[in-house]
Design a protein that fits this description.
The complex is a heterotetramer, with two copies of chain A and two copies of chain B.
Chain A (H helix, E strand, L loop, with lengths): L1 E11 L14 H4 L1 H26 L13 H10 L5 E3 L5 H6 L4 H8 L25 H14 L5 E6 L6 H12 L4 E7 L2 E2 L2 E2 H4 L15 E6 L3 H16 L5 E6 L18 H8 L3 H13 L3 H23 L8 H4 L10 H13 L1
Chain B lengths: L16 H15 L3 E5 L15 H5 L4 E3 L4 H13 L3 E5 L10 H6 L4 H4 L9 E6 L14 H5 L5 E3 L4 H13 L4 E6 L23 E4 L4 E5 L4 H13 L4 E5 L2 E3 L3 H11 L2 E8 L4 H12 L9 E5 L7 H7 L3 H13 L2
Parallel strand pairs in B: 1-2, 1-3, 3-4, 4-6, 5-6, 8-9, 8-11, 11-12
Antiparallel strand pairs in B: 5-10, 7-9
Helix pairs in contact in B: 1-7, 8-12, 9-10
Classes of the chains: A alpha/beta, B alpha/beta.
The complex binds thiamine diphosphate (2 copies) and magnesium ion (2 copies).
Chain lengths: 357, 337, 337, 357
């Protein structure tokens, strides 16, 4: 019996649950403005989430998936990315999308059931939300291949949940990214639940990071409620990919503090006690504690920021609510570059109805 | 992405479709130990629509199993289970996620009996909610039943009422071969009706005549029967008596019921949510052109979804056929001469 | 599972269909750097049918890429590549293995433009050989084009001759939206014909009239045009002039060419290899029942594969429609009164 | 940075390429009759393969996938299995199928295009060949679940190639087998080629055994040309599964000495030199060398065995060639348990044609 291969998974944390630095202090932590900036994106994301849920409850938004508790994964990741990197989000990365220039109005339009919400005015190369879980992972490989073929220094960043790691297409995409040394960073945002299925029922693996072993590249765990650690690990993975080192799988350990979506009722399948425990780990309070102890963040600073975030959200909501639906012909007009004449009759009928009413 | 909950009611106040499905599953599982349920979130959560509510508590974790998030597997694992003598009933959470399962349906479930000359068989049911009308997120509202109805070796069954959901699901589970059981989610909680929870299946391979009439035949299935019946009622007010046929089992198609009706009325409108081109309405219209041509007094009409991607909720109602479109087609057809 | 090799010939002796495809790929790749080929065994092996023979040597490993054995990926990766401005042409080795790719086609390729209101687009081609008649192993002979023709937002194109394979593949590659390009493998080496290798696409969305006639319209696509034309020739001997239409682009369907023809002949037989029920013939027959009813002088007939699993080679010829079946249907239809 | 998980892959070899025992001598190696029995199955498989190719070349068999060079994987595995274990083969495990009671006539019927070839008279629970690569892996999980639910001591054994390890469904099946501790043994028969694609282009992994890490169970490499080692490793994995220990992935290192199938021409994509090198490792000669040096296997013994194998093959070929095709109605009669009346007309037409001719 000969040992032919060995593998390991490391975990990285820089800021503990109390907001105290435990590892090497990253540069960014010393830069007050940078920390405040990251903090603001997290606070804004949370404010946006709360407002979106309220809109849904009052019938003015569709089913919505909140990212409550997962803000550090999204913001830390996006903060590490370059503008020309390409984000391929799942459906819970609002913080990353906002940070990269997707507007709140666009997010609301998307979740409000309007395709224009995916026609980002900024972040023009980023992919829209991906609802069929994990099905965007192959796209990330394709984006990575495009970048590689052009010899550009950019990276495709693909984010999905713990549940998604059970999908065959996620595996196929990771495998080819390894085989072709593609510039892709895969991020498994492990919030411990796939709707009602706990992470432990999803796979026998002790870590999700080790899923990378099957694709021949590195997997690493990070405290996903620690924005510094997320940013650090993302930075390393991005740099590796940029410099031709191929893909990395980052498992970000976080927790879904809210329901799966606005139509879910998490109390059916998990204890308040568990949720309560995780509130003590959550990323926003943690970073606020760090700011307070390290960068003299005051209650006033906090209140000012919260107010400005709310104002920003409100402005977006107003814009959203004032946005008229697209006309019915839009159903046809983006189907192909040019509508095949075979469908002209249907388009006419759809418009005709308009008149009937 | 999972709609609001409700606990399955009892028979006295009637049942809605989700409750009927829940009762059918219960009744089948009580009667037959070999039935195993599999799917995402069907356990403690009872399914995102609550179709399996309470079943894990009642039948245990062995028989009501939450799977990992793996649709190819949710279709493929039951093939092995069925070949070994079990009767798996698997749930795909939404039809929008069923596509990775097609490989197992076409290449395995549908042909295990044929390939092995009956040595191994595949008595499995694959359930999936489908269709629009509940303002669901992207990928949650499509109707692609026609893709399945083209696959040889399977049955495709779509209920249109609580009672038919109950009886047809029992029939599907009892069937010794694979059945794709598609549930129009718009109907899940739309209506309650008395359902006798007696474990009695309804016949598959069989259309249901929901309304008698001699002037025109309206053929539909699933959720669109709602609009179809509404239209029929309005037509009656105009003096046009419509016969309404619920196809129910798309594959194999009971064409004789439809042909008989059209033989009587000479006029036919087919209504479905799915995109027009290559929708299952095409098969029915084709059979009329092939086998019922000389009975036709007017062109067949199809009222269907557009040949476009299903829009997000804001324009959803502009995609789905509505009563007006059904009525307009029926009026044209009824008055054609 | 991969048929005998042959090296793509030059234009002087004519080309068979594989060679024509090879030349079309070459011509497109010379003209457009953004074209990248992907698939299993398409590199040094040139594809199991040799459609990509010599292309890796000529265009390099960057542009002609052997993928791992991962069909979901072979459809999904090109979506990302296309969104970034490339024009991927991916090969699925046999249609029997295309099913894991359907998810990417339905949920992504077909709707990237719609979803993003044109911000991201998906100019990709997915090629796959399909159909029976070469005595291939299990799962290598099916015809499931109808599943694709029902999906909104894509084109489905099927060539029936070397020249049409050449021109239509060029058109598919040049098209700014996704195209499923299905190649009838029975025709790959069936016949050579002169093909001008001039990089000129043929029009998609357009039926080809292969034979003029005023007595009956025979509509088919892909490999079955062989039997269809043979039948037409024999009918001519019986005094029946058949018009033969090659649908070529199934989606979007050029129904006006078919309606015009049937307007003239009043009689129509549709021929395809795929199982009857829900086959694409249904759509054409349905359109006749809807839009051409009053022109019909006889019931429409469909000559198709049985609604069964495609048998293994020993009974393959008893499954595939043959000239006799086409003839019998055409005679019935032509003489109907 | 904390190390949170470690993994390793071992390789096992008992008999070296020269037929010399290098590890602990397994019991079976000391039992002359048992060794001869295994050897005979390997020789028979090879004889069958050669004859099948000849039949194909003369138009009396369809496309055929030879297992030349891979006989030890098939036979070693089947030898370790119990009768009631369930084999889910790919399409190159003729040796395992034969060893488990599938008849040569059945194999020929299958490859000759007759469905009765999968209606095994023996091995009634074994699955037929699986052509869509890897798509039988989910079935193996299902079979494993059936066994587990019944509390039986059997195991589902699923064999596939190196290429198959790139398939998402293989991954999904392995993952659930790990999560549910199912009694399944996965065997990746790594013959270094997936048609023309070398193993190295299939994945960045250094071993295929490590694919198991992504599913949370053990992966092990074995010299697949060493029937003792295959049997030993299979035994261990089977015992583990039988006793509730869950799945194992065995990577058997072997080589496809022939073309991919009878319609492939391997000289298009690989060197004779490479093939020549692998002939020196091949399993039949290796076991013969062991038999010769250890168990006084003589040239006469060898000749007698080869003759008897050929005779057995010939008898099967004769039976095969004498088997009439099934009647056309068989196309309909196994479609469903009872033919739905909707198809009666088609069945009649198919039969009617019969009359026309
Ligand atoms: C392929 C697919 N199957 C099922 C669903 C329904 N669904 C939506 S989200 C979800 C759970 C996803 O869990 P995870 O990947 O952990 O992401 P999270 O929701 O926790 O962010 C499921 C089953 C889906 N969207 N896509
Ligand atoms: C899903 C699928 N894709 C493609 C094919 C065509 N094909 C048949 S065998 C094969 C290669 C398989 O390689 P491997 O898994 O290593 O098995 P081996 O043939 O070497 O035994 C391919 C691509 C197939 N049968 N199934
Ligand atoms: Mg999760
Ligand atoms: Mg191999």
């Amino acid at each position: 019996m000969t040992r032919v291969a060995e593998f390991s998974v490391d975990r990285i944390q820089l800021l503990d649950a109390a907001g105290v630095l435990v590892g090497d202090s990253p540069d960014v932590a010393r830069d007050r403005n940078r920390v405040i900036d990251m903090y603001r994106w997290m606070v804004l994301t949370r404010a946006f989430d709360a407002r979106a849920i309220a809109l849904q409850r009052t019938g003015r938004l569709g089913t919505y998936a909140s990212s409550l508790g997962q803000e550090a994964v999204a913001v830390g990741l996006a903060d590490a990315m370059e503008r020309d990197d390409v984000l391929l989000p799942s459906f819970r990365e609002h913080g990353a999308q906002l940070r990269r220039g997707v507007t709140m109005n666009e997010l609301l339009l998307y979740w409000g059931g309007d395709e224009r919400g995916s026609d980002f005015s900024g972040a023009r190369h980023d992919f829209p939300c991906c609802i069929p879980v994990g099905s965007h992972a192959p796209h990330a490989a394709g984006v990575g291949l495009a970048i590689q073929l052009r010899g550009e220094p950019w990276v495709a960043v693909c984010v999905f949940g713990d549940g998604a790691t059970s999908k065959g297409d996620v595996y196929e995409a990771m495998n080819i990214s390894g085989a072709w040394t593609l510039p892709v960073v895969f991020v498994a945002s492990n919030n411990e639940w796939s709707i009602s299925v706990p992470r432990s029922a999803q796979t026998a693996c002790e870590t999700l990071a080790q899923k990378a072993v099957a694709s021949g590249f590195e997997g690493v765990q990070v405290d996903g409620n620690d924005v510094f650690a997320v940013r650090e690990v993302a930075n390393r993975a991005l740099e590796k990919a940029r410099s031709g080192g191929g893909p990395t799988l980052i498992e970000a350990l976080t927790y879904r503090l809210g329901d799966h979506t606005t139509v879910d009722d998490a109390s059916r399948y998990r204890d308040d006690e568990e949720v309560g425990r995780h509130w003590k780990q959550e990323p926003v309070a943690r970073l606020r504690a760090f700011l307070t102890t390290t960068h003299e963040w005051t209650r006033e600073d906090e209140e000012t920021m919260i107010e400005s975030c709310h104002a920003e959200v409100e402005a977006a909501v107003e814009e959203y609510l004032a946005t008229e639906s697209q006309p019915v012909e839009s159903i046809f007009d983006y189907l192909h570059e040019k509508l095949p004449s075979a469908y002209a009759g249907q388009r006419g009928m759809a418009l005709g109805e308009e008149g009937d009413r | 992405m999972n709609p609001a909950s409700a606990d399955p009611g009892s028979t006295d106040t009637g049942m809605n479709m989700v409750e009927a499905i829940n009762h059918a599953l219960t009744s089948a599982m009580v009667a037959d130990d070999s039935i195993v349920l599999l799917g995402e979130d069907i356990g403690i959560n009872g399914g995102v629509f609550r179709a399996t509510d309470g079943l894990q508590a009642r039948f245990g974790k062995d028989r009501v199993r939450d799977t990992p998030l793996s649709e190819a597997l949710i279709a493929g694992l039951p093939v092995g289970l069925a070949a070994m003598g079990f009767r798996p009933v698997a749930e795909i959470q939404f039809m929008g996620f069923i596509y990775p399962a097609i490989d197992q349906i076409v290449n395995h479930a549908s042909r295990l009996r044929t390939r092995t000359r009956g040595r191994l068989t595949c008595p499995m049911v694959l359930r999936a909610p489908f269709g629009g009308g509940i303002h669901a997120p992207e990928h949650h509202s499509e109707s692609m039943e026609a893709m399945f109805a083209h696959i040889p070796g399977i049955r495709v069954v779509i209920p249109s009422s609580p009672a038919r959901a109950y009886g047809l699901l029992l029939a599907a589970i009892a069937n010794p071969d694979p059945v794709i059981f598609l549930e129009p989610k718009r109907l899940y909680r739309a209506r309650r009706e008395p359902v006798t929870d007696d474990g009695r299946p309804l016949p598959m391979d069989h259309c249901f005549k929901l309304r008698e009439g001699s002037d025109i035949t309206l053929v539909s299935w699933g959720a669109m029967l709602k609009e179809t019946i509404e239209a029929a009622d309005m037509l009656a007010g105009e003096g046009v008596e419509a016969e309404v046929i619920d196809v129910a089992t798309l594959k194999p198609l009971d064409m004789s019921t439809i042909l008989d009706s059209v033989g009587k009325t000479g006029r036919c409108v087919i209504i479905h949510e799915a995109p027009l081109t290559g929708g299952f309405g095409a098969e029915i219209a084709a059979r009329l052109a092939c086998e019922g041509l000389m009975q036709l007094l007017a062109p067949v009409e199809r009222v269907a979804g557009w040949d476009t991607v299903m829009p997000l909720p804001r324009l959803e109602t502009r995609y789905l056929p509505n009563v007006e479109r059904v009525l307009a087609a029926a009026r044209r057809t009824a008055s054609y001469s």
